[in-house]
Amino acid sequence: MEEKLKKICCIGGIDADIICSPVPAFPPMGKGITLDSMRFTIGGCAGNTALDLARLGVGSILFCKLGEDQMGRSVLKELMDVGVDVRGIHLDTEVETGVSIVMVDPVSGERTFFYTPFSSTYFESRDIDLEIADESDIVFVGGALQLERFDGFPCAAFLRRARERGQITAMDTGWDTTGRWLPSIQAALPFVDFFMPSFDEAVELAGGERDPEAMARFFQSLGVANVVIKMGKKGAFVRDALGSMFIAPAYSGVKAVDTTGAGDSFCAGFLTGLELGYDLKGCAVLANAVASFCVQAHSAYGGIPPLSDVLAFKERQEHDYYIELL
Fold first, then answer.
1. What are the 10-residue block averages of pLDDT along the chain, 326 residues in total?
2. pLDDT score, position 2
3. CATH 3.40.50.300 fits 8-13+45-96+127-325, yes or no
4. Which of 123, 156, 230, 321 could form an SS bridge with 187, CB 3.0 to 4.6 Å?
5. Which residues form the Carbohydrate kinase PfkB domain (predicted)?
């Protein structure tokens, strides 16, 4: 990058991940299986995206809540070691750091999660230092639907203020184990410039609709400007504020060994494109390229290289890559 980019502000979910691999099937009750590896890493939408941005060299400021406990201190140290700006992180003696146990299928690389959200559940508006958040051009809420005290009207107020200041606003969602779905975040949607749920989360939010265009139209009817639906190995569906649509396919020939954090790395790539001034097609292509690196490593962020390497990969693949206009 020739010029210094502003750090992107990431807000929301973070936890400690224990990644277990391979887990071809769950053993019967009372039995066990032997694993090749069990690794500690960082998880959560906002945490992963912030780490990905730092590894790309774009830079990130992270606002989240951790417990003042061993897990929380380990997570904080890792964030600092990777280069995330941690001025917005609160260590709270009254809560425990959330932990996710991630089981990785050896064939598909897909995951099953068992988690305790804990500290992210207690994250709220007063945990955001607005002077620090104002240093960014882009504010990203990661893990919406899992931020019990921030979802909905508090998030709406924050994003409204960001919009009024001229900042770009973006939101990704996490799986809603409460089953409330849309009512939890609907108040904030009119203030979201880029809404980036996974396909499965979008289906739940749209009341069971499975057609990407219909889902996008539904979210836009609620006030969202641009919709980006992450579709895993199928790539991403994008519908912009003017109604133009396209599919950016995932890169072919990429062998996925672990899809943990793939959606978060996609968000990091897309936000990087916005910061670089790319159009939406360019943002989606860059996002898929970043995600390609993510899924080839056994970590949500360990496989993310500097942005120059991602751009070189993207350039090498250009002759075989086609955007599908709709």
1. 78 92 90 90 95 96 97 96 97 94 85 83 97 98 97 99 98 96 99 99 99 99 99 96 97 86 97 98 97 90 96 88 81
2. 46
3. no
4. 156
5. 6-303
Backbone angles phi, psi at 177, to 5 degrees: -75, -15
Amino acid present at 318: E
Residues 6 or more apart whose CB falls under 8 angstroms from that of 286 comprise 269, 270, 272, 273, 278, 310, 311, 314
Q: How far apart are CA 196 and CA 186, in angstroms?
A: 14
Which of 51, 94, 56 shows the shortest CA–CA distance to 72?
Answer: 94
> Can you tell me which residue has the tokens 């598909």?
108
Domain segments of the chain as ranges: 8-13+45-96+127-325
pLDDT recorded at residue 3: 56
CA distance 179 to 233: 26
Burial of 208 from C-beta contacts in 10 A (0-12 / 13-18 / 19+)? exposed
pTM of the complete model beyond 0.90:
yes
51 C-beta neighbours (distance < 10 Å), count: 32
* DSSP classification of residue 235: -
In this structure, the chain runs to a length of 326
Q: Are 131 and 48 in contact (CB under 8 A)?
A: no
* Residue 116 near residue 101, CB atoms below 8 Å: no
What per-residue confidence (pLDDT) applies to 256? 86
Helix, strand or coil for residue 54?
helix
